Amino acid sequence: MTEAAIIGWAHSPFGKLEAEPDLESLIARVARAAIEDAGISPAEIDAGFVGIFGEGFTPQGFPASLLLQSVPEMRFRPITRYENACATGSAAIHGARDFIAAGRGRFALVVGAEKMTATPGPKIGEILLTASYRKTESDIEGGFAGVFGRIAEAYFQRHGDQSDALATIAAKNHKNGVDNPWAQMRKDFGYEFCRNESEKNPYVARPLKRTDCSLVSDGAAALVLADTETARSMGKAVRFRAAVQVNEYLPIAARDIIRFDGARTAWQRAYEQAGVGVGDLSFVETHDCFTIAELIEYEAMGLAAEGKGGRAALEGWTSAGGKLPVNRSGGLKAKGHPIGATGVSMHVLAAMQLCGQAGAMQLPRADLAGVFNMGGAAVANYVSILERAS
User: Fold this and answer.
1) How many domains does the chain have?
2) CA distances from 23 to 51, 57, 188, 306 (A)
3) Does residue 16 form part of some domain?
């Protein structure tokens, strides 16, 4: 089987992007830029993979061929839209990897994008709830934040109040976001602000406050994949040591929701595939849609024992200078979370770290990266382990 490597990328700012009026303009912002960064011509792209959640965020259905508006050289090439809730971007990457692995082409373009901020707030909540099990979860107060509020409550009941740890995670990610030029919120709020309820930091879905919740965002990211033999002749190449997808039951009542067993299984399989363990990783970009998710993900990735994820935060293990930096980019918490773009963004930022191109975010040790992107409440779970190709 032919393996794939990342050879180029592009990333837009995340936030309320009024200069980008629609999905088409967001796609255009990154598509050609990623091809140029890879050092190839648009005519060399053999296929396109477009990740867009878009369950009501845009009136434009059938968005895949919008890519041709900015890359007309791809006319008559296969282009497909991918969707897997908040893991949509990673789903598109997996589609591109499969295309390369099958030997169907040498170069594949992946674009993830979402235009969310033009949608009224109550409607956003309704759209996001489509990633939950509507039969039993549609009436949860607080929308998707309410789903994770219930997860946090259940975790607290079993393992004790983790409010200090959640505030530490939020403060860490906001501090990291200051160094990310594309982050939606580049402000270091500090632990005290994140820990305490206030007019500017109210409860959204107890015990989660505003600083525990990721942002509503517009944005796009793109990358180019090539087969590894071709990639070694390019200017830079980041290869997949592992790429795993694991899906779980959709209803949260069908599983022990505070364990994230799907995420745990995905990490275990990725370690086996790569021949490494958590102690070999240099850093991780993980899916902190809510701070409680990041805490449980510490346990799923094997960094902390079950019920002890808070220790990893409180003792600084996951800070920029800790033994395993997590979300040096600011994560979804500070960087933003334009759903279709998130998984692609995580891979782009990990690749930049591995190639020493992360600017103010650059870590002194960046040899092996872990990326975890999930859709729903740990339903669609994707883990990548990346390293720079020699």
Assistant:
1) 1
2) 11, 9, 30, 41
3) yes
Instruction: State the residue range of the domain holding 71.
Output: 4-119+216-231
For 344, other C-beta atoms within 10 Å of its C-beta total: 32
**How many C-beta atoms surround the C-beta of residue 359 within 10 A?**
10
- State whether the Cα torsion 150-152-153-154 is positive or negative: positive
Question: What is the DSSP code string of 201-259?
Answer: S-EEETTEEGGGBPPP-EEEEEEEEEEHHHHTTSS--EEEEEEEEEE--SSGGGS-TTT
- Reported as a single tens digit per residue, the pLDDT across 45-101 is 999 999 999 778 988 889 999 999 999 999 999 999 999 999 999 999 999 999 999
Question: Any idea what the Cα angle at residue 133 is, between residues 131 and 134, rounded to 5°?
Answer: 95
pLDDT for residue 56: 86
**For residue 115, what are the β-bridge partners?**
218
Q: The tokens of 281 are what?
A: 């990783």
Whole-prediction pTM value? Answer: 0.98
Q: Which of 385, 388, 384 is nearest to 91 (CA)?
A: 384
Rounded CA-CA distance 115/22 in Å is 6
Q: CA–CA distance from 331 to each of 55, 140, 185, 233, 264 (Å)? A: 23, 26, 11, 32, 20
**Is 180 part of a structural domain of the chain?**
no
Peptide bond into 207 cis (omega under 30): yes
- For the stretch 313-361, pLDDT in tens is 999 999 999 999 999 999 999 999 999 999 999 999 999 999 999 999 9
In a domain, 97, yes or no: yes
Q: What is the CATH number of the domain that holds 58?
A: 3.40.47.10
Residue 309 lies in a domain: no
Q: How many CB atoms sit inside 10 A of residue 189's CB? A: 19
Q: Which residues pair with 218 in a beta bridge?
A: 15, 115
